[in-house]
Amino acid sequence: MKKLINAPEAVLADALKGIEAAHADLRVDHAGRVIYRATPKDQGTVALVSGGGSGHEPLHGGFVGFGMLDAACAGEVFTSPTPDQMQAATKEVDRGAGVLHIVKNYTGDVMNFEMAAELAAMEASVDVKTIVVNDDVAVQDSLYTAGRRGVGLTVLLEKIVGAAAEQGRSLDDLVALSEKVNGEGRSMGMALTSCTVPAAGKPTFDLPDDQMEIGVGIHGEPGRHRVPLADAHHIAEQLVEPILADLDFGSSPTIVMLNGMGGTPLIELYLMYGEVAAILQKHGVTIARNLVGNYITSLDMAGCSVTVLRADDELLSLWDAPVETAGLRWGR
Amino acid sequence: MSTTLTLDGFVRWLESFRARIDEQTAYLTELDSAIGDADHGSNMARGMAAVMTKVGESPAATADELFKTVGMTLVTSVGGASGPLYGTFFLRVGMAAGPVSECDAAALAAALRAGLEGVVARGKAEAGDKTMFDALSPALDAMDAAVAAGASLEEATAAARDAAATGRDATEPLVARKGRASYLGERSAGHLDPGATSTALLFEALAEVTAA
């Protein structure tokens, strides 16, 4: 294992120090492992808390700031944070209008956020609602699994719902908006390589040079199928077609994200975006906005994911609204 | 050999579980690499280290106090699915044991059964889902049967240990239906479940302590 680390067990603590050193508009609680906005939002507005295992940067800490999250709880690498972290973050960011928890559908994340909400309810001081994002079309047989995973759509949802929260909308409004986004977006990912969890010291799985994994999540876990490596055009087809088969995008405008898994250079991500855009257009899908880059990663995994969100004027205008975070920044 | 497990015995059980987890950290993580996300060993090792520190700092006077500390420490230090599941297990064991300083075989079996019910409430797993349930549930069935047949504490926990190991081994051919391994579909078959494997260690530790 060759990594820019001091010690495997210190990766998270050391990375949080670096995030604080790099971003003056963030405040880091190092003991609690929570990233906050340095300047809290106004009293009377709903706050957004997300979190999850580390290793997906910029998600979630890179999306804390104006127009997106108020706090992000960081777990160990690929391990969900704990209920006490989430409860502390929830109490800290509440501005009297309630707190929305944004949770990716992974067993550990859901259980820990559930326990956090139970703890918060016991104190009965903060109104907490939860949205569980589950956009991964790779998981087909959801009766016999833990359900579709929460992946790329989480980024778009945090942006859109974050913008709505800045407008002063109510917690119930934001829950409805979150459910709308979750219902209208789908993702599919693939891997060219596994990734190396620092504590494990070696790749999570072996992937021969002539093979790839289709239908991966964001934790270096093997995907749904292992298939022969193909050229970019055919990989793009294998990502886009399951998305289009799952949801009819009709003639609505869409927001499309071509996301890198962390170990793929931007030149390849742009190349893939070109392929994905061409396939979508061939199927009559209109791309109104796009995002190309590393937004929800899986450590050093090589590969990418595609997210397509059916958008209306409301979602597009919230997408275009100003945002000022380490990971997304425009319009301000 | 004694007919009850005292507070000291509970602490020795936890120490022995921690020692086994430490010994097998790499093995558990390797199992988790095959069908999960390669962190079960390191997460449980971190959790049990925190538990032993907490238990050493503030010795409990009763079983409920001890297991509440164990459960809350696991919940707040492990993360993932194992934190809430093992944490809920010990919290419920403590609640069921109550403010006592020792448990006989029947009381211990009842407390552990309450722990299992907590795990089911939290994780919604059923038999054959390829989870810790598949070691935990047969272990407690075997323990109950042994207690009903008049077995000693040592015999009952040995029966639980053996059933947990059998249950763990039986997870190998299963296709996972819960947790992260479920996303692999058929590809999850052919591997032991890491959670069932660590649960078998918990019962190895218990049997060792009651036999001492």
Automatic annotation (TrEMBL), chain A:
Gene: dhaK
Known catalytic reactions: dihydroxyacetone + phosphoenolpyruvate = dihydroxyacetone phosphate + pyruvate
SUPFAM superfamilies: DAK1/DegV-like (SSF82549)
Matches recorded under InterPro entries: DhaK_1 (IPR012736), DhaK_dom (IPR004006), Dihydroxyacetone_Kinase (IPR050861)
DhaK domain location: 7-330
The protein, known as: phosphoenolpyruvate--glycerone phosphotransferase
Source organism, top-level taxon: Bacteria
PANTHER family the record matches: TRIOKINASE/FMN CYCLASE, TRIOKINASE_FMN CYCLASE
Gene3D superfamilies noted in UniProt: Dihydroxyacetone kinase, domain 1, Dihydroxyacetone kinase, domain 2
EC number: 2.7.1.121
NCBIfam families reported for this sequence: dhaK1
TrEMBL record, chain B:
DhaL domain mapped to chain residues: 8-208
InterPro entries from the UniProt entry: DhaK_L_YcgS, DhaL_dom, DhaL_dom_sf, Dihydroxyacetone_Kinase
Cited Pfam families: Dak2 (PF02734)
Descriptive protein name: Dihydroxyacetone kinase subunit L
Gene Ontology terms describing biological process: glycerol catabolic process
Gene Ontology MF terms: glycerone kinase activity
Gene Ontology, cellular component aspect: cytosol
Species of the source: Microcella pacifica
Alphabetical keyword list: Kinase, Transferase
Gene for this chain: dhaL
Domain of life: Bacteria
